[in-house]
């Protein structure tokens, strides 16, 4: 029996829309990461990008369980001395809710160059409107677009 390894020409990409209204951040991020990597397909190969495009809408309406809105902090450094900045999840959700989802999904992807390529296929929008209606409409005619609720 031979081991199957997917190639670029074997991959057929589709567009999936995920509604994040009322979804829990961690559970949503794992679903998104699996779709981006292609783990929901039979041709999944770990070192090849076999995943689909994902459009996440209503990112501003995402939920965090427990007291994470107040207690969870996100850190970044400005590369200047004493430049460590901290921001709570609540303020990040108000200011840029798409960054909250991007950060969670990035942490669930492999730590290599493949992760950067996978993240380019993720589109996150705070409201219900998005500019990818044409791609999704063209794939829904073929029966490949999927709209799921978080």
* N-to-C CA distance: 39 Å
Low-confidence parts: none
**What's the count of strands?**
6
Give the CA-based shape: globular
Kindly estimate the percentage of residues that lie in beta strands according to DSSP: 15-25%
Q: How many independent structural domains? A: 1
Sheet bearing the most strands, described? 4 strands, parallel
The chain-level structural class is alpha/beta
CATH topology group: Ribosomal Protein L13p, Chain: A
Structure description:
The protein has 150 residues and is of the alpha/beta class. The chain has a single domain (13-64, 96-149), classed as Ribosomal Protein L13p, Chain: A. Helix content is 34%, strand content 18%. The protein has six helices and six strands, in the order βαβαββαααβαβ. The chain has helices spanning 25-37, 68-71, 89-95, 97-107, 113-119, 133-141, and strands spanning 15-19, 53-57, 73-77, 84-88, 122-124, 146-149. The chain has a four-stranded parallel beta sheet with strand order 5-2-1-6, with helices on both faces. Strands 3-4 form a two-stranded antiparallel sheet. Strand 1 (15-19), helix 1 and strand 2 (53-57) form a beta-alpha-beta unit. Helix 1 (25-37) crosses helix 4 (97-107) and helix 3 (89-95) packs across helix 4 (97-107). It is globular. The model has no long low-confidence stretch (mean pLDDT 91).
